[in-house]
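Weekly modeling sync, notes
Attendees: AB, CL, MP (scribe)

Item 1: holo prediction request
CL wants a bound-state model with flavin-adenine dinucleotide before deciding which constructs to order. AB pointed out that an apo prediction alone won't tell us much about the pocket. Agreed to run with the ligand included and paste results into these notes for async review.

Input as submitted:
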Amino acid sequence: MTQNDQNPFGLTPDQQQLLDQVDRFSKAELYPLAPRMDAEEWWPDHIFPRIGEMGMFGATIPEEFGGTNMDLLSSGLTLQAMGRWNHALALSWVAHDNLCANNIYRNGTEAQRRKYLPGLCSGKLVGALGLTEPGAGSDALGSMRTTARRDGDHYVLNGQKLYITNGPVADVLLVYAKTDKEAGAHGISAFIVEKGMPGFRVAQKLVKMGYRGSPTGELVFEDCRVPAENLVGGENRGVAVVMSGLDLERAMITPLCLGVAERALDLSVEFAKTRKQFGKPIGTFQMVQSHLAEMYTAVEAMRAYTYRVLAEAGPMEQGGGGRGYIHMLTASAVMFVADQLHRVLDLAVQVHGGAGYIWESEINRLFRSTKLLEIGAGTTEVRKMIIAGELLRGMGRD
Ligand SMILES: Cc1cc2nc3c(=O)[nH]c(=O)nc-3n(C[C@H](O)[C@H](O)[C@H](O)COP(=O)(O)OP(=O)(O)OC[C@H]3O[C@@H](n4cnc5c(N)ncnc54)[C@H](O)[C@@H]3O)c2cc1C
């Protein structure tokens, strides 16, 4: 009997096999990199080509562009397994594969797909997405200051982007800028910027409390000339690209949270069995058992919502999302899952006692990852605004 026979909400045998394969690879090759990535904010240059060689990029992209043509849930399983063993690389994977490559696939022209996707899917090129700015975070669209002006067969970009995952190491960046300053959110366009384009530079790499091996940067565009053929989705059509991309990003963050939570639970069970106090393993004490039971229940609830949102967001049509049921569901799923992760990691450190408070310990590295997933891709408050907004517009149960 397979897991799927026992549990209709579980994974199919193929999906379970994918999860196990990526888990084995991640444990063998990504996990040993994690301590140095965290300690030194080190980016291992060799690892993206290696992940590409393993066929772990382009899960939602057809084979003709270098992808593996699976679905969003399979893509999420890859991320879940990576998240267990090296969550910093898993975050960089999301920015590269989902925010950049999948977005170019969904919204790009045939020529853009042929030019950029094979390199992104092989891991030869590193991808990133630049939306947030120093003055434009939660109000990313309304407060955007970066501009793009048409000049012959180019657009000229001016402005700044902040907190951009992979920014310091990216070769290909999907960047949003205002092409019509008077049209508000409807005057935004998306562009593919390459690292070497004149006028583009990385102003700084930012030092973070968690996900330290995943490089985050501030980017500057000073009369940056981008060929007009690098416009993605049409002039002033960026809002559809952003909004559908954000829904997918929210869905895709959930398996990352799940992977980290699973690892935190495993570490805590192991610690409870081996750490002795009062002459006994601490796992024999009922209050420690209570922590483990609560963690397990949270992880299973996270798993159920994660797989559901991935399955439901997968078929989102091109340009879809950014409104209605799926907008509400993805916001709700990521809000719940990130909140549960916070709880699981808090309990995990409690189970570890002083050992969990030591910077170098694995559980501490995981603990320092909590806050980001309550902030990135729209904060918890923004997620609540989306959910309540859709409910009040009538997007209820039926
Ligand atoms: C490590 C890291 C990686 C990131 N990667 C990327 C990336 O790859 N690409 C990218 O474009 N961006 C990225 N971001 C940016 C991220 O999406 C933003 O940080 C996030 O959207 C919040 O914006 P902000 O930081 O400017 O906070 P602010 O918008 O200034 O919010 C500050 C606080 O005010 C609250 N708030 C704001 N408006 C309201 C309101 N109307 N009602 C109630 N509360 C409100 C917020 O919820 C928050 O609690 C990343 C951020 C981090 C930290």
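Recorded for review: The chain is about 50% helix and 15% strand.
Action items: CL to compare against the apo run; MP to circulate these notes.
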